Structure formats: structure tokens, C-alpha cells
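Dear colleague,

As promised, here are the two records you asked about, laid out in our usual form so they can be pasted straight into your sheet.

NAME FIELD: protein one
SEQUENCE, THEN STRUCTURE:
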Amino acid sequence: MRNGTMVAETTMESTVRIDLAQNEALVLFDFLSRFSHSDKLEIVDQAEHRVLWNLCCNLERVLTEPFLESYSSELKKARDEIRDTN
């Protein structure tokens, strides 16, 4: 973690690690918990917007897929791997 802000990095195992400051983690937890309970994504405070923006910026630094011509197929593959199977 740098200066109490979130940092993302890739590891040798094709995983992405994200470090969050305590306050960022708390704000993100509350945002995600509200969604989990209501199925409604709604930003109720500008801090939530900031944490999500920071997260996106940090992921842009470590992911290569968004910049590939094959991004759509890479995203579909990732979604297929993660999606629940019923």
C-alpha cells in the first residue's frame, strides 16, 4: 500500500492483488453490502464513487486484456469461467 491508497499488482500465479486503505475498504464494503442486500447498485456518497474510480484506475495499470483487440472474447471467457452454473 502506498500512502494509504489502494494499489493493484499482478503476481506470478495470474492473480491480481489489490491493497486498500482501511477507510477505502470500509466504504467499498458498505457499497457492496448494500448491493448484496438490495440487488440495486446505487452510489449514495461521493466517497463510493472515488473508491470505485480508484479501483478502476488501479486495475487499468495491471490488466493487459482491456487493451487487446480480443478484449470482448477475453471478457466473455472470464465471465463464463466465473458465472454460477445451475
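NAME FIELD: protein two
SEQUENCE, THEN STRUCTURE:
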Amino acid sequence: MGHAPGASLVARPHDTIAKVLVQNHDLAREVFQLGLPKELVECIDWSTLGDSSKQFTNTAMGRRFGDGVFTASCQGQPMLLMPVDVGGPQ
């Protein structure tokens, strides 16, 4: 039996959102600007926003790849930004 069109989008919403944000930096910027503290939003040089393909390793998490991880600059210092799902249906 096949899956309904769009079923994978519902089954893995985080992956879908991360992919959309990586493909649309204007949308990613808006998401970060809405979700981050005002002081941080004002500090970030949004013209430096870019996506990161960095790989992260952690003993608790194992080997992970940056899924929707972005780079930016804040007062001349590099930083990483990542949208995180902190709520919603379980």
C-alpha cells in the first residue's frame, strides 16, 4: 500500500521545516527574529546569515550532521543558529 501524498511531510515535520528554512534564508531570518531574544536579534548581522553543513559529534548524541544549522556573525564573532521545536503535539 502506498503513502498518501505529503505523508512524509507530516511524519517528519522537523526535517521538512529544516529543509524549507535552508532553502529560504529570508524565511529562516524571520523565524530567528521572532524566536530569539530582542538583544540577540539586534546584535546579529543578518547579512551574514548562511547555512552550515558542519558535522557535530557528541558522546551522548553520537555523530550528527547539521540539519538546519545556520551561521551568522554577532559583533564580529561567528555563531551557530538552529531552529528547535520546543512544543507541539507529541
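A couple of things worth noting about protein two: The first helix runs from residue 7 to 11. The chain has one domain: 9-81.

Best,
R.
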